[in-house]
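sry for the spam today, last one i promise. C-alpha cells for design, 115 residues
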C-alpha cells in the first residue's frame, strides 16, 4: 500500500488512475518503468490467461459448436471477432491474435510472455 502511494506521488497521479509497471517487474521501481493508466488500458497490459482459456494464448479460444479456433479482442469496449481457423490451424490463429494485439493496442500493450 505504501509503495502504491509513493508511485502515485512520484507520477503525480490523481483520481481514478492505476499505476502500473511497464515491464511487469514489480521490483523495478524506476520512474521510467512506472506509468499511470486508466483501468481499461491497465487491463490490456496483463500477462496472465483467463481461467477458462483453452488455447494457452490470449485472445484465442476453441468454439466447440463451430469446431474452430476463434480470434477475438476487445475493441472500444466490444468483443470483436477477427477470424476462425480449423482445428489444425491453431498456430495461424495465435499469429493473427498477436498481430491484432500489436495493431489495435499498440504501445499500451506490453506482454513479453506472449509477444
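last one done:
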Amino acid at each position: 500500500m505504501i509503495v502504491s502511494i509513493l508511485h502515485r506521488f512520484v507520477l503525480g497521479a490523481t483520481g481514478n488512475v492505476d499505476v502500473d509497471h511497464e515491464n511487469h517487474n514489480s521490483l523495478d521501481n524506476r520512474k521510467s518503468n512506472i506509468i499511470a493508466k486508466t483501468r481499461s488500458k491497465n487491463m490490456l497490459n496483463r500477462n496472465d490467461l483467463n481461467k477458462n482459456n483453452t488455447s494457452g494464448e490470449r485472445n484465442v479460444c476453441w468454439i466447440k459448436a463451430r469446431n474452430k479456433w476463434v480470434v477475438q479482442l476487445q475493441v472500444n469496449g466490444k468483443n470483436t471477432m477477427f477470424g476462425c481457423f480449423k482445428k489444425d490451424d491453431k498456430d495461424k490463429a495465435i499469429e493473427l491474435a498477436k498481430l491484432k494485439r500489436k495493431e489495435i493496442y499498440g504501445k499500451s500493450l506490453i506482454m513479453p510472455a506472449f509477444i
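The radius of gyration is 17 Å. ok im logging off now
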